[in-house]
Amino acid sequence: MKYFGGCDVGSTYTKAVILDENGKMCADTTIRSKINAEQSAIAAMQEVCDKVGLKDSKELAYLIGTGYGRNKVPFADENISEISCHAMGVHVTNPEVRAIIDIGGQDVKGISIDTDGTVKSFAMNDKCSAGTGRFFEAMARSFEMSLPEFSNLSLTAKNVIPITAQCTVFAESEVITLVGEGKPTDEIAAGIEMAVAKRCFVMAKKAG
């Protein structure tokens, strides 16, 4: 049996996966990215290799590196941008999809794809962390919650309290003020998510 691997070294999390020769996913993992991108890739790949009984990633038939640190994936046979990987991955799993929004740790991408999974166009916000994964982490800290706890907070909201600040620092300050005023935390969280959704909509429109 031949195995094939993929490693996505992101700025915040590193993901790894192994497929068999029939395209079936045999193992996957997500770990927090280390300061050293290469060490992140090694740790993630070793974890999935252990799950399928391989000594290390050298035993894979083919390995692709992607993401922010794709050039740091040891033993990778090929490095491909995460934009192209998103496009082909979505095409394989759901060929009817034509638009992708990727909220990463440090940027947000809007991607338009063709009928064969190729990238038609894309837009990217990489100059400001507002609306990114790190933005959500900052907001969770404002509520003294973990990110998983924060992600469920808005589900009980009956109203949405708008967040007007565009910058992460100012938005965090605005949230702290609203919490101090006794505003419902679930409605504040809903406002945060609405602000991010609007930014993503703009990004998707730019991508066409």
What is the CATH domain class of the largest domain?
Alpha Beta
Tally of separate domains: 2
The pLDDT mean sits at 93
Count of distinct strands: 8
Which stretches are low in confidence, meaning pLDDT under 50 for 5 or more residues running?
Answer: none
Query: Radius of gyration, Cα only, in angstroms?
Result: 19 Å
Structural summary, described in words:
The protein has helices spanning 37-52, 82-93, 133-142, 147-153, 168-180, 185-207, and strands at 3-9, 13-20, 25-32, 62-66, 78-79, 99-103, 108-113, 119-125. With 208 residues, it is α/β, with parallel strands linked by helices. It has two domains: 3-80, ATPase, nucleotide binding domain (Nucleotidyltransferase, domain 5, 2-Layer Sandwich), CATH 3.30.420; 97-208, ATPase, nucleotide binding domain (Nucleotidyltransferase, domain 5).
Topology:
Layout: E1 3-9, E2 13-20, E3 25-32, H1 37-52, E4 62-66, E5 78-79, H2 82-93, E6 99-103, E7 108-113, E8 119-125, H3 133-142, H4 147-153, H5 168-180, H6 185-207
Parallel strand pairs: 1-4, 4-5
Antiparallel strand pairs: 1-2, 2-3, 6-7, 7-8
Helix pairs in contact: 3-4, 3-5
